[in-house]
């Protein structure tokens, strides 16, 4: 699988035929009006609901199959974004005079050749049994059944394969927390396996409890997908295999004389992912060398096992809303440029661990010192019409008071949302601040904010469809983000990081 993907890129299908059309914007005479004075209001008229709707329904359509990182679908989405940026008249600001910055993703998966047998009966991988992390291991041993974790204190388990029921985590995930079932299983596995690893076991079979059993299909999709990393992030593989079993598959283990035979195999692939980068120059001879960076991500979760008959995670709110909002901001910036330049970065592989923004923060295509501020957004088209959140606006997440003041003033003056600050609290159970693309820039010492309208029940499900987006609210959020960037662009003194600003983790 490694060779064909890079062959596609080098053969010209993307870097030739498609990318060639994304290297040069139309003539400026067709796309730019006379620049306005710094005191002029932003060009809100360029942000049109009809254009947002059209772009949203295209980017979040089934034809792009959820834009999963490391797949041709993500690359096709990137080409779509780049072509839209070119049509607007934004300049390419990626590598080699293009709109693109490619980078490698390292993916580890459980190999399809993996086999698992209990008492000679084969268990179907991803149906009866889930390998929770890619690992190479062979097990042919009797299984010791544990009735509870208390049994670990009464029995020498070193070198043994053990099995037991999954134990509910303590504490439970907060009520109504997003992806509650996934978090339940993950927390239970983390707590239980930590105890068993300390006993020196050779393998673990954990049988789903009544809470976990209905969630196995959804959670199992995550395990089947494997692990994505940047090459520099590579960590040591696990040494002890952990298998999660359906209740029916685990029934034979309780007899006390079960035998496990497992041949676990793993694959490693290198895939390309891509950031899309464009720029609208500012009007001031000196300040145009500095950049206000508008940030979002164009990828989502792709296609998986059907949920209610729908197998495509379209990611309309997460994060097609922001991708099309950035295009609208680009139109506005071309109509009325600010004094500083606007830099647009549509990150790839955000859903795999903020990988595109981590890469760009470490390998920017402009001088890192030229990035004045990062205005990032994630999910800006759902929930109550007048509510929104600005993460990074309160301590310890606030790293630039001046930037926060500009965003709040833009909201008071233009968009007038009621701002929910509760999700910025470091004790909020969702930890939402740390789950979007502004974080690598904050860690790099750049002023940054996170605009969002927060989570909803369709988050990371196939129900996150374009038809469910509040287009009027999306346009309003776009104007807020744009007005903030306009203020940053036209304020003579650049915003700075507050002395002593430091994240809690």
TrEMBL record:
Q: Which InterPro entries match?
A: M28_fam (IPR045175), Peptidase_M28 (IPR007484)
Q: Which residues form the Peptidase M28 domain?
A: 275-482
The signal peptide here is: 1-20
Q: Does the keyword Signal apply?
A: yes
Q: What is this protein called?
A: M28 family peptidase
GO BP terms in the entry: proteolysis
What molecular function terms (GO) are annotated for this protein?
metalloexopeptidase activity
Tell me the organism.
Hymenobacter metallicola
Keywords of the record, alphabetical order, are:
Signal
């Amino acid at each position: 699988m490694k060779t064909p993907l890079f062959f596609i890129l080098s053969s010209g299908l993307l870097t030739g035929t498609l990318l060639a059309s994304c290297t040069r914007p139309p003539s400026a005479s067709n796309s730019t009006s006379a620049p306005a004075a710094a005191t002029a209001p932003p060009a809100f008229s360029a942000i049109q609901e009809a254009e947002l709707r059209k772009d949203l329904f295209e980017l979040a359509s089934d034809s792009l199959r959820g834009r999963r990182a490391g797949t041709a679908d993500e690359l096709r989405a990137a080409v779509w974004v780049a072509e839209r940026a070119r049509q607007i008249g934004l300049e390419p600001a990626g590598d080699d005079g293009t709109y693109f910055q490619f980078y490698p993703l390292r993916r580890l998966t459980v190999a399809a050749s993996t086999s698992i047998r209990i008492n000679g009966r084969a268990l179907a991988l991803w149906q009866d049994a889930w390998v929770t992390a890619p690992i190479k291991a062979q097990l042919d041993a009797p299984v010791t059944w544990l009735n509870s974790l208390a049994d670990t204190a009464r029995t020498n388990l070193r070198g043994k394969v053990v099995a037991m029921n999954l134990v509910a985590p303590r504490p439970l995930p907060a009520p109504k927390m997003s992806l509650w079932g996934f978090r339940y299983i993950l927390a239970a596995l983390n707590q239980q396996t930590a105890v068993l690893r300390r006993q020196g076991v050779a393998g673990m079979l954990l049988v789903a409890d009544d809470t976990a059993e209905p969630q196995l299909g959804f959670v199992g999709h995550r395990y089947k997908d494997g692990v994505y990393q940047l090459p520099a992030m590579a960590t040591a593989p696990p040494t002890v295999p952990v298998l999660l079993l359906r209740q029916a598959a685990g029934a034979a283990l309780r007899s006390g004389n079960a035998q496990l035979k497992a041949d676990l195999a793993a694959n490693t692939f290198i895939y390309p992912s891509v950031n899309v980068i464009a720029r609208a120059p500012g009007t001031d001879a000196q300040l145009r060398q500095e950049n206000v960076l508008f940030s979002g991500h164009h990828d989502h979760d792709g296609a998986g096992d059907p949920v209610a008959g729908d197998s495509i995670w379209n990611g309309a709110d997460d994060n097609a809303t922001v991708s099309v909002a950035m295009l609208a901001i680009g139109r506005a910036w071309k109509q009325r440029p600010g004094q500083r330049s606007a830099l647009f970065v549509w990150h790839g592989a955000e859903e795999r661990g903020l990988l595109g923004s981590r890469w760009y923060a470490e390998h920017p295509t402009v001088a890192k010192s030229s990035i004045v501020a990062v205005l990032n957004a994630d999910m800006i088209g759902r929930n109550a019409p007048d509510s929104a959140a600005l993460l990074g606006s309160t301590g310890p997440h606030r790293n630039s008071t001046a930037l926060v003041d500009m965003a709040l003033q833009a909201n008071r003056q233009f968009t007038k949302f009621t701002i929910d600050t509760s999700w910025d609290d470091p004790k909020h159970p969702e930890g939402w601040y740390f789950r979007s693309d502004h974080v690598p820039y904050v860690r790099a010492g750049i002023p940054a904010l996170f605009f969002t309208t927060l989570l909803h029940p369709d988050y990371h499900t196939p129900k996150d469809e374009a038809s469910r987006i509040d287009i009027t609210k999306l346009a309003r959020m776009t104007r807020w983000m744009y007005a903030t960037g306009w203020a940053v662009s036209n304020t003579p003194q650049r915003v700075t990081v507050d002395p002593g600003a430091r994240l809690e983790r």
